[in-house]
Design goal:
With 680 residues, the chain is an alpha+beta fold. The protein has 19 helices and 18 strands. The chain has helices spanning 2-5, 7-73, 76-80, 97-105, 121-135, 166-174, 181-187, 245-252, 255-258, 304-312, 353-356, 358-404, 419-481, 486-514, 527-537, 539-545, 562-578, 610-615, 631-641, and strands spanning 139-146, 151-154, 192-197, 219-227, 234-243, 273-277, 284-286, 315-317, 321-323, 326-334, 346-352, 522-526, 547-553, 557-561, 584-593, 596-602, 645-650, 658-665. The longest helix has 67 residues, at 7-73.
Length: 680
Amino acid sequence: MTMWRSLSTKLLLAVFAAVILPFGGFAFYLQDQIAGRMTTELVRKSLLGLSEDLAGDVEHALDEVRGDLSLWAAEPAADWVFSIDPAEGQNWNASHAIDLARWYEGLPDGFESPLQDGAAFPRELTESLDRYVTTKPEFDLLLLVDAAGYLVCCSTIDRDGVPLPEDVIYDLFARSFAEEPWFETAITGGFALQDHHVSNFLHPEGPPAREDQLATDFGVGLATPVRDKANGSINGVLYALVNWSTFQDLVDQRVVKEAFRGLVSGDEQPSPYAWIWGRDADTILAHQYRKFYRMKVSGELGLRAMRDDARGAEFGMYRDYVFMGKKKTAAFWHTVGAGEGGFGWVVGVGIDYDDIYKASAEQRKLLLRGTFVVLLLVLLWMSIIARRTTEPIARLERHTRAVAGGDLSARVVLKRSDELGQLADAMNTMTRDLERNRAALIKAEKDAAWREMARQVAHDLKNPLTPIQLSLDLVERSRAEGSDQAEAILERTLDLMRRQVKSLRATATEFYEFTGGAPPEPQDLELGTSVQRVLELHQAWAERDGIEVATELGAAPVRADANKLERVLTNLVTNAFQAMPEGGCLEVFVGAERGRSIVRITDNGAGLSQAAMERLFEPYFTTKSQGTGLGLAVSARFVEEMGGSLALEPRTDGTTGATATLELPELGRTQEPGPEGSRA
């Protein structure tokens, strides 16, 4: 977001908008005008012509295979096989299919034929059918079926000369074709057509499992009667399974793309492609993408309007549509229907609108390239100007950030005589003034701090000296007057002086420790042991004030200065006891949590106010009538030296009191010291 707000970016965007928008608008206008003329005339007429030609090619291919089949059915050999007499006492039917199939294959040697004269003829006829399949690769299978619906002879190899599986041949001889629609039509003298299907002759278990279907897995069937040459009666049926690649190859032929070669340049491939739909104008039979085989145009593909267009006329243009993310236009043409000896398929040819726009797109590219060169030069020049304009501003910004970060020694150097140079001089003058003022302010703050500290120390020293002075005056007066209480007054004075000297020593010690004190001497300690020692020192106090101490001391190894650690613990326990002058309960927990050694001391005293919590760790702040107010401040400093944290908060269970939490790194772990008095 910072980049878009910069002055240089705004300048560059302004130039970009001023140059690219006019040229770009003209380029798109030119494209639309040329593309409109091409779409209305040339492309539509070409698509209609191609769809008509493709429909003719499909009809021609069907006529060719139908003619080949009719010629073969008229061969004497086709009728001859039906005239062979069966062996005496045997019928040539399905019960002998296995033996017959084995006999055709010549296994085993010396096998006795179930036929009489001309027993070798079926083998010769089979070989003739096999040669025909390899010569005419559009045929997958040829069958000669007798009038009863049983197979008499068939081809036994595929177009590549590979023998058909033995179980397929056995199945063909073992089945009856009497109830097949194509057989019923052909045996009564008609020419039967079996539309696009998966052959259960070659794939009795269904088509092979593939990610993308193959045209060779599908076919169409044709059947014609085989007539007696003498009297014209029908002796059987000749059936041919035509491989679907015969028609798919017509859809894939390059002439469809080459017709629009002029729309693209170089090695680019035009987008047009063709397809064949079923007679319902809704089922895809042939397509450049085999995965669409058998899909519904109005169903899976969601092109209901195209289905309606194809059903509404014999030929014409589809409405524009979007397929696979591309806008397209296409034409369609119906082949001859079943009444005229055809399948009534719908042939279509389509093209992407991207190809239609190729011509204008080339001009648009040329214009845009010129625009790009001009824009590049303008942007290069503007970037130089923007850099010369914004670089001083950036330097001023960096200078401002340095000053804001506390570096008052920073100076910005701009050898310019314009407004930016004057601004730099003014900022340098301001920075020098700030630096002088800050130095004076720091000195004043230090002086004030030392004065306050001296005042506090003087106050703490003066308080014990006043009673000492008064007591000494009293001793002196009693001795001068020869009072009989002089000795007693002297003893009381000495006792008072000892106590006040002890107080003065404690004040000096705390002040020394607050200012740094002796360097720490860390050692491996068990936190629970230190806590136990401190509690034992306070046992008499607890018994006197009726304070019950409940402890839960777990393993919590630390590395710390033993004396300073016990000083911190003593301070925390003392504060807790002083908060419960009328007795109460002190709960002490020691353990390890999240890699930290924890001491948690909870009392049920008067608790803490919000104002007190904000100043607990300030030097000389105290809520008690006695003490210097350095205890928690010194404790916080010690804990900071140990790399831990100290917090003092009200209880969270709804009762009065406070909880002091001391956290130190567990032995073997280290942590950077936190801020003084940081909360856990």
